[in-house]
Design goal:
6-stranded mixed sheet, 7 helices
């Protein structure tokens, strides 16, 4: 939330998978047609290394969005980083083990850079057009080993993501003048 303007700067929506309903991303991977990949559950499992052993152990990062006012400016970077930190903190507090998501190419590259290689592509599943986006990639991550490795290999980044260390300076260190 932009406290100065009193409105949202970005949002994130996570959906817990269930045996009964599934989750949006995994359902779309199993759907045929324009906005699906047409894979079986066996194909999905074979092309990943999910730590999840039950559907309930998977969290779908269904929405990660930054409002237009923050896109293309220093603020967008800060908002995206803060949202990523919030998702990781939420996931670690849960009983889940694996994330899944669909990201367009540019957000995917930004998440990989900021998250130090956090997400993995499914083996042999190519990006494709998806709900109007030209280049969407299905991704997954076993976030518990990721977080443990981050603590050892990159303790400063781990402190930022897990304990909000230097939150204002690191995530929102922009000047008073907006860059659009």
């Amino acid at each position: 939330v932009d406290h100065e303007r009193g409105r949202p700067a970005g949002a994130i929506r996570c959906v817990r998978n269930s045996a009964e309903l599934g989750c949006p991303m995994l359902n779309d991977l199993q759907t045929d047609g324009e906005n699906g990949w047409g894979l079986s559950w066996g194909d999905i499992v074979e092309r990943s290394d999910f730590a999840a052993r039950r559907p309930e152990d998977i969290i779908d990062i269904a929405t990660l969005a930054v409002t237009r006012d923050y896109a293309g400016s220093d603020r967008a970077d800060g908002v995206s980083k803060a949202l990523f930190a919030a998702v990781l903190q939420h996931a670690i507090r849960s009983t889940s083990t694996t994330w899944v998501t669909l990201l367009d190419r540019i957000p995917y590259l930004l998440v990989q850079a900021w998250g130090m290689g956090v997400m993995r592509e499914f083996d042999g599943i190519a990006p494709r057009s998806y709900h109007g986006a030209a280049d969407t990639t299905p991704l997954w991550c076993n976030f518990r080993p990721y977080e443990a490795n981050l603590a050892v290999e990159h303790p400063e980044q781990h402190a930022r993501l897990m304990r909000n260390a230097e939150l204002d300076d690191y995530f929102f260190g922009w000047s008073d003048e907006r860059v659009v």
